[in-house]
TrEMBL record:
InterPro entries: Glyco_trans_2-like, Glycosyltransferase_2, Nucleotide-diphossugar_trans. The keyword Ribonucleoprotein does not apply. One of its GO terms (cellular component) is plasma membrane. Residues 9-169 form the Glycosyltransferase 2-like domain. It comes from Bradyrhizobium cosmicum. This is Glycosyltransferase. The keyword Glycosyltransferase applies.
Amino acid sequence: MSSSQPSVSIVVPVRNEADNIAPLIEEITTALDGRWAYEIIYINDGSTDATGERLASIMTQRDNLRQLRHARSGGQSAAVRSGVRAARGAIVATLDGDGQNNPAFLPDLIAAVEKGSNIGLAAGQRVGRKDTGFKKFQSRVANKVRNAILQDGTRDTGCGLKAFRREVFLMMPYFDGLHRFLPALVRREGFDIAYVDVIDRPRRSGVSNYGFFDRLWIGIMDLAGVWWLIRRKKPTPEVTEVQA
């Protein structure tokens, strides 16, 4: 695969996902080869297992694979942000590194952004989730509360499968947990959202590294903060340059 200027960047945040690296990269390449000039950016978020070594080995075979490393774990939002800032493609797509997100849906998400002149975000919406009943209950409650307060029109913001215009993402105010509020913030900037149903699947190997309880109370504060941001948003002025 050529390392020429990509039009699409695939961003994958990972922490201690060594056994999931090679199978997921293979699926990404199967989904995208021959369709777009693309790069894959893995953000190694302070892993302490063989994640870095597995990525380095595959990088010798694929020159469109890049690895960014956080010296210590900064969390999922920080990892996504690092990947987007380093991306060379005008369109960025994200997915989780644990194998639950199927890369076969990436083309639909990328195409949705390409085809919509005002589409800022294409958001995956999971069907047939492979989580425990308790975790699905948590998500239903969280999504209902978030939607009632922010009115973002999105039933599932927790899906890692997303595609967006890089420039739109970089317009967002950054905070930890940003990735869970992208629909509301994208609408705040005047862009539309496309939705794509995606089929969830079980994690291939390992355990979740970005849990629920470690972000519960912070998520409540984030919700209040995003609500405040939306309330304080003024229309973007139409700007023209006056010529002499």
